What we know:
A: 8 helices; B: alpha/beta; Rossmann fold; Barwin-like endoglucanases; binds iron/sulfur cluster
Amino acid sequence: MQWIQLKIDDRKIRVPEKTTILEACRMNNISVPTLCHDPELTNWGACRLCVVEIEGMRNLITSCTMEVQPGMVVKTSTPKVKEARKTILELIVANHDIDCLTCEKMGECELSKYAYEYGVKKDVFLGAKRKYELDDSNPFIIRDLNKCILCGKCVRACAEIQVNNVLDYSKRGFETQVGPAFNLPYGESECVFCGSCLAVCPVGALTEKQMTAKGRPWEYKKVQTTCPFCGTGCNFDLNIRDNKVVGITSNPNSPVNGRALCVKGRFGVDYIHSPNRLTKPLIKKKGEFVEAEWYEALKLVAEKFKTLKDQYGPDSLGALSSARCTNEENYLLQKFMRTVIGTNNIDHCART
Amino acid sequence: MAGLATSFGSGAMTNSIKEIPHSKVILVIGSNTTEAHPVIGSKIKQAVRNGCRLIVADPRKIELTGLAEVWLRLRPGTDITLINGLMHIILKRGWEDRSFIAERTVGFENLKELLREYTPDFVSRVTGVPEEQLYQAAEIYAASDCAQIFYTLGITEHTSGTDNVMSLANLAMLTGNVGKENSGVNPLRGQNNVQGACDMGALPNFYPGYQKVSDPKAQKKFEKAWGVSLNPNQGYMIPDMFAAALQGKLKAMYIMGEDPVLTDANANHVRQGLKALDFLVVQDIFLTETAKLADVVLPGASFAEKAGTFTNTERRVQMVNKAIDPLGKSKADWRIICDLAGIMGYHFIYKSTAEIMKEIASLTPQYCGITHERLGIRGMQWPVLGEDHYGTQFLHKDRFTRGKGLFMPVEARTPDELPDKDYPFLLSTGRKLEHYNITTRHSKVLEGHSSEELAELNPLDAEKLNISDGERVKVSSRRGELETRVKLTDRVPPGMIFMTFHYKESPVNVLTNAACDKVAGTYEYKVCAVQVSKLE
Ligand code: SF4
Ligand code: SF4
Ligand code: SF4
Ligand code: FES
């Protein structure tokens, strides 16, 4: 691997070849704002917020799309750069539905983060604002195009992570939109509701329906865990508030899946709080289930198991363990059957 | 699982999910990956986007068939013939990897002998796949210096499931496509912790870590560790349990977190078996169809309410972390087992599941170096050989787990039940994207999105039966009958009907066949004969 030496903000820096200027900055803790860049996606240079000055080049350069060159001299925070970034933000804000009070993204919104940093107030440029109807066509994702900043991350996530190619830009100029072909609502498109677009959207244009008005991002405790559905073993964060799982969010550190998930993992864990959950032991008396205390129920089981074992031998008892339970639980159940009962009658529904 | 264990010495997926996007050739056989393992499916699509050549063998037109360079639309149940046919061509053309065969395997001569009969002409007639496509697929697979095979239920849920898997192992060994990055034989395990349940010895013939119950040395080891003397007799596999219950030999069952009434083939038989028991205990988070038959129901906790580990299909042991307290008076399943053992006079005393993992690691060679602490947020892929080992990305490098790879010649067998005059349709079952077995049906959002069975039927058949799209029809087999709505689509070939097993309103397993693979004990879910008729 070739190493390249360059200067950023008067610091001498060495990075591997093919690194972009943006990556070089971030590796060295030099902050550069970005709205359309994402480390897992290709770079399109759509938002231009990441511009920097490069000695010997007349125009400002988008740092996310240009690779480092030997001897390059880069400046990331000259007045010219700052001014350019501020103007970009002002233009976006001018055509943005500023609804921070009830916006689900509040606290995690990249646009508001940079507007704050660059002192951008609303409505510097007055002009027409978009007025699209909310796309509420499905149980999973709410799409509010009035907040879309056209960064195209969702388009790339759909094409590059999910490889479903449902989303694209359509129309031009002021009317430019991002969404499924023919401007169909999500619910009528070929969308499979993996939610990859939702996971990368930097603003409140794509939000999760189930989590609407359930809490602010900073109110959630996040707990990384492993998906309970299929054998892929995706990880994600459970978002907890008041001992309740409100929803899940992607965790980029997930070893198997990064931020990708499928409709089940991303939206299906609400079964945890289903009203059908069992919350007390039940004992069948005269054909009807009656609620019982733990000790009563376990004592009954223990006695029955013991009587049957004494009368018919240990091999008259069997257990089914579960591919949905943890390793520790599977281990314990087989140990229970083999030691306490004394039989190898243990199996699980090995649907492969 | 059993098939690969015979050929390679380990039944697990040989390679890693992260390798998929960089693969050069992928053969997907009997796996509707984008619906059954969606994120793996996306990675296969990413691979194709990166230039990987894809071969798909599947009777149904699934999403991946649209991306495949070659789609082998074989007749259901003819997998072995197809694979043997591909190997026949590879040998005929001299595309086999001779040095790999010589250095790493045994039994090649037997295979060669068997393959002689599987001429392209014969194979094409049996499978329905045109000869040119057989040549094309064989060439793509054999000519690449690395190639991956992925399969799931499609391949194992046949009476000849174990054989199917061994034939795939043969194909990989014949071409040296195993034991390196991007090259291997990869069973995609269905449920989240099937791999772990097997690893942990929730099997009638194995202690944890696939140590044989029949091996006196293993028995001694566990007797010493557990401080009791152990029963040397192999136990019942699932299908045998229900049969034994009906014969009065099995008197009581303890079922944790499974719903065999809904998920096992031939549901009526299962139900009768369970009813015949003297005593049934079910531990679950919902009052499942199985739980309704129980004498005692113990409320377990969901994955969000307890700590522990799951092992995914690529052997990665990962943390499940406790996020909330168990609901109401429900309890983590491990605590319930400990409490019950305590009442029965045995000391299962663990402060946490981390302590249980310590015991597992001390007895299970593959998990030897695993502790909860070491798993952290990235998990580890077994075998983890010690505290200074970081796990294994792909298996069988330089040496197979069993030493030399074993070619097991497999003769094609016909499925146990095929369509005939009375039951002219072939029923195939599987999953759909929105649901995972049963649990997801308690998800309000998923249920709202996909709440009813839509059996797939070819429009040509529908026309003959005068059935229109969305109509409710009767489907019956020799074992039972049900009603379901149909969707007319060319995803299924004429003569076939496809249903999922997610819906208790149309419980497909009253139809399926309980004939089961003699080695692995998996039922024949994939193929059985049914009749489709208009409702009066
Ligand atoms: S949810 Fe997934 S499939 Fe649907 S538009 Fe978003 S990225 Fe594409
Ligand atoms: S919906 Fe979100 S991710 Fe997509 S273009 Fe608009 S702002 Fe960007
Ligand atoms: S998110 Fe989807 S693909 Fe990932 S483990 Fe869960 S069910 Fe499987
Ligand atoms: S982040 Fe570079 S152009 Fe948007």
